[in-house]
Amino acid sequence: MYALDHTDVNIDTTSVSVYGNNGPLSAYGYSRGRRPDLEQVNFGVAEIRHPINIPIDLAVDRGNAADPMQFLNIIENVVSHMRPGSMFVFDAGGDPKKNLDRIAEHGMRYVTRKKMNMSVDKRISENKLGRNRHRG
């Protein structure tokens, strides 16, 4: 459609807390805003990466929709508009094997942050990794 330099895509999701009466998309789910007492609505967006930064997909889902499913839906919505070998960039919410396999099936690449296991998380929280413990 357009002569873009690339079709690499960033994907991210978030949620918005809902104050008031129940809406058709509001539901209790994982609260990114640390308000588990409120229902929420989830949003996901895909954009062509820097320096273009054009949004190409917006998903609105019930507040209890899981990140992996939101990411998979967005991937399916945009992959046909991307050049072969393009790259998806997203956080750990989109890294389940099913999503990564689907990207690979389309001949695309990805960069993601993997979820840490509990032992690494514990070592970081105990200040045993990633920080110089000697201060001068």
General description of the model:
By secondary structure, the chain is an alpha/beta fold. It has one domain (9-125): 2-Layer Sandwich (Nucleotidyltransferase, domain 5). 21% of the residues lie in helices and 26% in strands. The protein has helices spanning 67-78, 97-105, 118-125, and strands at residues 9-18, 39-48, 55-62, 87-90, 109-112. A 5-stranded mixed sheet has the order 3-2-1-4-5, covered by helices on one side. The termini are far apart.
Order of helices and strands: EEEHEHEH
CATH architecture: 2-Layer Sandwich
Uncertain parts: none
Q: In which range does the helix fraction lie? A: 10-25%
Overall number of domains: 1
Spatial sequence of strands, sheet with the most strands: 3-2-1-4-5
First and last CA, distance: 58 Å
Question: Any descriptors?
Answer:
136 residues, alpha/beta, Nucleotidyltransferase, domain 5, 5-stranded mixed β-sheet, 21% helix
Summarize the structure.
This protein is an alpha/beta fold and 136 residues long. The protein has one domain (9-125): Nucleotidyltransferase, domain 5 (2-Layer Sandwich).
Chart the SSEs and their pairings.
Layout: E1 9-18, E2 39-48, E3 55-62, H1 67-78, E4 87-90, H2 97-105, E5 109-112, H3 118-125
Parallel strand pairs: 1-4, 4-5
Antiparallel strand pairs: 1-2, 2-3
Helix pairs in contact: 1-2
